[in-house]
TrEMBL record, chains A, B:
It comes from Shimia thalassica. This is S-adenosyl-L-methionine methyltransferase. Keywords: Methyltransferase, Transferase. Gene3D superfamilies: Vaccinia Virus protein VP39 (3.40.50.150). One of its GO terms (molecular function) is methyltransferase activity. GO terms for biological process: methylation.
């Protein structure tokens, strides 16, 4: 596999998981959270396929393409290790879709970071809410779901709060 | 279409066109040219699927991922408007596969640039050689080919020297 193949697999998987989560949570009230804006491509996808829902973006430093930069009032600036606990106080356990793509190039660091933020994300999901991630997470109360068609094993992960 | 959709279409088209060109030119002698290194993903794809061929990379400023950075002797540093004419003197009309992904975000500038470099690329291709591009080009002696399955109209272009 070339780096081009790996990259395409990752993007296609991300889209398949997002589309699955969007369908599964259609009609649920409460906010949607995008953790990590980056270029803004997945944010653009989420707001386009869910125009009826509020998509808040958590980001340390906004450097997205101008075509997909969120409104200031939808941007939650800062390190997610601080902004997630603050947002739990603000929103309560109401999120019905959270997407995280926070990882960098260092695999070991990504695992460590996933361990760190798993307990911060877990309480934010409403019952029936879905969490989509590029990294394997360390949850104690969420159920890992099988991936939809088109998604590639190990490239994305889906979790749901069942109760 | 979200920016994620557009991006996936572009990457998938690029790969489909490259794979088609690699198959069509299999067994031909002469160098392969990658115009524009960027992150190095398509370069990585080309060298992985053509380990038997010499892939030279034309780039102004190397900023690729270390996992896909070409050897110094395979890197032709500088503005392609200067390095293409120099390489024509060095290699003659021997290239059998050239891939260009030089465009930026400004569509109008991309068209202007494609006009400028078309006459510089055209004489470098050997008979039977194929040129794959993310932009429509302005050639006078090359034949535009239909796209392979998986490639999306308008996202990539394929040209061949027939004589
Ligand atoms: C890989 S990019 C996201 C790409 C995005 N999914 C897209 O499609 O364009 C990761 C982003 O997460 C952000 N990030 C990483 N760690 C963070 C942290 N601890 N707090 C807030 N943002 C963080 C980075 O600044 C970067 O913009
Ligand atoms: Ni490989
Ligand atoms: Ni659109």
């Amino acid at each position: 596999m070339s780096r081009l193949d790996v990259f395409i697999n990752r993007m296609v998987s991300q889209r398949a998981c997002l589309d699955f989560a969007i369908e599964q949570t259609r009609g649920m009230a409460g906010p949607v959270f995008e953790l990590g804006l980056g270029n803004g491509r997945t944010f653009d996808h989420m707001r386009e396929r869910m125009p009826e829902r509020d998509v808040y973006v958590f980001e340390r430093k906004v450097e997205s393409n101008p075509a997909s930069t969120p409104e200031p009032e939808m941007t939650i600036l800062g390190d997610v290790r601080e902004t997630l606990p603050q947002s739990l106080e603000r929103f309560g356990p109401t999120a019905h879709l959270i997407h995280a793509d926070l990882g960098g190039h260092n695999l070991e660091k990504n695992v460590q970071f996933a361990r760190e933020i798993s307990p911060l994300i877990e309480p934010m999901l409403a019952v029936g809410g879905i969490f989509v991630s590029s990294d394997r997470m360390f949850f104690t109360s969420l159920t890992e779901l099988p991936l939809p068609a088109d998604a590639i094993e190990g490239r994305c992960f889906i979790y749901r709060r069942d109760a």
